[in-house]
Amino acid sequence: MAVWALVSALVGLFPVGITLGVLALRRIRSRGTRGRGLAIAAVAVGSAEVVAVIAVALIAATVLRSLPADLLEPRQAHARQLVVGSCLAELPTDGVVDLVQAVPCGQEHAAQVTSTYTFTDGGWPGQVAADRAVADSCRLTDAQTQAGAWLVAWAPTRSSWNLGDRTGLCLVVGG
């Protein structure tokens, strides 16, 4: 039982590994059989995996949590955290956008998220189609156009799509 407990823990079946490890320890204590070290290792490995899964879940929840639109102080954020109303200190150069500096909109800023585009059911449309879909959804108001503003569209990349990103952003720059 201790061997199966350790094998289960090592292949990622940590609840099974922990359970079998504890049962093996009880059996070893009552019957005096061998395998105590393996059972302890199974419980330790399974417990470490539980801690790792919880840590990853907490980190992912923090990274993917949307920013409040009314930030009180500047902060670095992932592009996936931006919402309508988010303001950016500067607009990143062309290419894949990940981390940006979000600032309170009352401070000087280079761009502001004005709308989002949500991709509906379906698989990855391809980068060109994703870029086009988001860009086609972006609109400037007459006042923004008269003030000299222009639009920038950010679409998910294939890698962010694979992580569940289905939202494009429309940003107004200038004006």
List keywords for this structure.
alpha+beta
- The count of helical stretches stands at 6
Strand tally = 6
- The sequence of SSEs as H and E is HHHEEEEHHEHE
Tell me the structural class: alpha+beta
* Shape by Cα distribution: elongated
Topology readout:
Elements: H1 2-10, H2 14-31, H3 36-64, E1 75-78, E2 87-88, E3 99-103, E4 111-118, H4 127-137, H5 142-146, E5 150-154, H6 158-162, E6 167-173
Summarize the structure in words:
- There is one protein chain.
- The chain has 175 residues and is α+β, with helices and mostly antiparallel strands.
- It folds into two domains: 2-64; 75-173, no CATH class.
- 44% of the residues lie in helices and 18% in strands.
- It contains six helices and six strands.
- The chain has helices at 2-10, 14-31, 36-64, 127-137, 142-146, 158-162; strands spanning 75-78, 87-88, 99-103, 111-118, 150-154, 167-173.
- The mean pLDDT is 88.
